[in-house]
Structures are given as C-alpha cells and as structure tokens.
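Hi everyone,

Forwarding the result from last night's run.
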Amino acid sequence: VNLAAKFSQVEGPWRPAIVGELNGQYVKVARFKGDYVWHCHEQEDELFFVVDGQVRIELRDRTVELHPGEFFIVPQGVEHRPASDNGANVLLFEPATTRSTGNTESLHTIEATDLPRL
C-alpha cells in the first residue's frame, strides 16, 4: 500500500478511510486538522500512528504530543480528543466495529459500516 497515494484520496479532515484489514482490525488513513470531539470507545483500544505532522491526544488528566513515526494507544474506556493545529496524516488501527466517535454523537460520527475503502 502506498500511503502517500492513499492519503491523497482522503475526503477531508476527520474522514477516515479503510486501507487494510487483518484479524478483525481495520487499518485506516485519516487527516487530522483542528480539534475532534471528546469521546471514548467502551470496548475498543485505538492506536494513532503519526505519518506526518503533529498530533495531540488530549486525555482528561494529560496531553500526549505525537510527532512523525510515533504512536499512542488509547485504552478502551478512556475519554480522549485527538487534535492537530497544522494538520497531520495518521494511521489508525482499531477493531472493525469501532464507531468513529465511540459513545458520543456528533457531526463527525461515522459508523464502521459507512467507512470508504481506498
């Protein structure tokens, strides 16, 4: 998979797309820009791997800063908010059933069954 080609096909910020699947997990590409919505995934861990740009994973008790080549796993049940001031390309690894905003309903909510495949 050519990641640069896949990132160029992403519709816009906070609109992830599936680029791979293994063992019940999706590999997704996404562009982050601005602040996302606070949410948690009650049953799923979520891995954020920064390909380029910088990302903040805000947690209620701390903020994790990520740079290219770094990743962070948000454990299930932990409320978080991804953010990127200047934009970033991110790989997401999460169970195929994961709803984009977990337990929160917002304009960013995308059901796992509605994700595009690139």
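The mean pLDDT is 93.

Cheers,
N.
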